[in-house]
Amino acid sequence: MEKVLVLLLVALTVAYAVPDPRGIIINLDEGELCLNSAQCNSKCCHREDGLSLARCAPKASENSECSAFTLYGVYYKCPCERGLTCNGDKTIVGSITNTNFGVCLDLGRATE
Q: Which residue in 33, 64, 84, 94 has a CA-CA distance of 20 to 30 Å to 109?
């Protein structure tokens, strides 16, 4: 148990000693490897398919394919940029199977 605590303390010390504000585990830039969207500055950890490595990617722009939400934190299609809505499947089944794809729309512009 003591070895685990010492290892954790050393890991935290190294993480805090890094002068780069980008970070090692969080605040990752586009193109860097990620395990969850919370690690990315863009809040989108994207993978091409089930066998590819996930990387931070920009959020989807207007009229681009998107995912509404995923339980896993890794997307096949990134969620929409701020102010846009993903018009697509928003069921729990779509979220579990990662098939909740849609298109980013600006609802304010669409109603005009």
A: 94
